[in-house]
Amino acid sequence: MNHTKSAVMIAIFKVLVKGKKHYCQMSVDTLLELLVKWHNISVNRRWLFQCLHDLEASGYITRKQRYRRRSGNLSVQIPSLISITLDGARELYRRGVDAARGLIDEILSWLRGNDKRWPEPAPPGNDQLDSRIFIGPTPLKELMPGVLFDLKNA
Hints:
By secondary structure, this protein is an alpha+beta fold. Helix content is 47%, strand content 14%. It is built from six helices and two strands; from the N terminus they run H-H-H-E-E-H-H-H. It has helices spanning 3-19, 28-39, 45-57, 86-94, 100-113, 137-143; strands spanning 61-70, 74-84. A two-stranded antiparallel ribbon has the order 1-2. A hairpin with a 3-residue loop joins strand 1 (61-70) and strand 2 (74-84). The N and C termini lie far apart (67 Å).
């Protein structure tokens, strides 16, 4: 993990501790500002996205993308929820962030006591939509008998 990724992890951790939640929902622009303010590191948005991707691929953070519906049935992406994993908390502690010990203890207590504050993986199969809905009116009639009627006979 390079210096920028360490700084990103520390910035996420500081926001988590300040907010007293197990996740943060800051925008990329806010994270860029915090990197400059706290670590005197100025990077481009693209590099920050790459750092977040690498931290997620390493298992140090988890991200959940979120969307908001706008008028006209349009979806707009809003800031993701970011959590530090047990491996990420251990890595922070290993790198000298002593306060990460509290996060490690909280995660381990959740694993033992199941306090439901930490995100759980989605059940398998929820990410796939039923393709019959998009085929046409005949499968839709089969899915919803009695709801659709013939406009010619109405």
